[in-house]
Amino acid sequence: MAWIELMIAGVFEVVWATAMKLSNGLTKMNYTVATVVGMIISFLLLARATKSLPLSLAYPIWTGVGAVGSIVVGVLFFGDKIPLATWFFVALLLIGIIGIKVTVGD
User: Fold this and answer.
1) In 3D, which of 67, 68, 60 has the Cα closest to residue 103?
2) Where are the bilayer-spanning segments (predicted)?
């Protein structure tokens, strides 16, 4: 269950980062509220996950899911241009996240 909470926490990290971008510097109230709510959900789920998962695993996975997810959202929804070479390193991040999960057992 902790792994599921951790993955959902990572997704909400992408949610709050996206809402923060859409809030225009926290000036649009609906997106500002979505940012804060997303942060709270993300942090609460991370905190729950770290009750049974080591911090040394949970935190890098949480940030990695958020990083990869934010890159994908930026490219798909905001038209961010990512050089091909950068995609190689995004793939390495994803491989690292999967590798951590696979090698920990549980």
Assistant:
1) 60
2) 29-47, 59-78, 84-104
